[in-house]
Amino acid sequence: MTELSSIEDRIAARYSDLSGQLQKAADYVAANPMDVASRSLRAVSSGSGLSPATYSRLARALGFDTYEEMRELCREAVGQHVPSFSEKAERLGDDGGTGKSVFQRQTEACIANIATLQAQVTEDKLTRAVEALARARNVVLFGAFGSTGIVEYLAYLANYCTSNWTLAGRMGASLGSALSVMNDKDVLFIVTKSPYARRAIIAAQMAQDLGATTIIITDSHSCPALKYADVPFIVPSESPQFFSSYTATLALLESLMAMLVACDPKGTSLRIRDVETRNSGLGEFWSE
């Protein structure tokens, strides 16, 4: 497991191993870093209905020597917070008497998600993901339910740039067959959001057991697949609608693809040019 740089990363990496009571405390810390950073342990305990001792045990379970060390990391998270956007996102469940349309509330949620993503994701984590993708023998993509179309779009972009990316679980490409030939030279890239696809979680575990690098994009520290992630991304997905928003996820995926192309711009350009030539020869696109 790589170095964990944020309180949410720490919680995500260890969440599935926590007891039920410690998971409740972790949920509270992840949802209320401002309270943990600025209020006393007694006040946090009172506000959450959990004992001070539970938070001390949580701190140790997350790898801190003391509760104060966990609190300090929460202070750093608060420093990265974007209050105006996040507060706006919290009010999107209803119009709050503002009379804003569904379109206005939805677009504001998307803007808030992207702003939060930008504030929270580190360049180091982006670089680690891109370096793993660049050196991989093969990259296997998997997404189910709402994430299916997202990974199909990523596969479409990737196939312009490289020939070693495979979309598993679609169009006759079995997820099991893709996993069967993976080793420590390969990458499994999963996108999964609540409710989490069972196959995504099991595939992440299998890939880790095979020594492959796992990149997981999800929406919460409680996602079970994060336990098996080498490079985890928790992407804001808030929406006033009944579904999760993928706007920030798309921004992350497109950024990763752009960074990957930038690793070898000349070689990638030649590959894209060749694909475009063959598409033209096949008459794939409309032209006057």
From TrEMBL:
It holds the Pfam family SIS. Residues 129-268 form the SIS domain. Keywords: DNA-binding, Transcription, Transcription regulation. Coiled coil: none annotated. Signal peptide: none annotated. GO terms for molecular function: carbohydrate derivative binding; DNA binding; DNA-binding transcription factor activity. GO terms for biological process: carbohydrate derivative metabolic process. It comes from the Bacteria. SUPFAM superfamilies: Homeodomain-like, SIS domain. PROSITE patterns: HTH_RPIR, SIS. Residues 5-81 form the HTH rpiR-type domain. This is SIS domain-containing protein. It comes from Thalassovita mangrovi. The lineage of its organism: Bacteria, Pseudomonadati, Pseudomonadota, Alphaproteobacteria, Rhodobacterales.
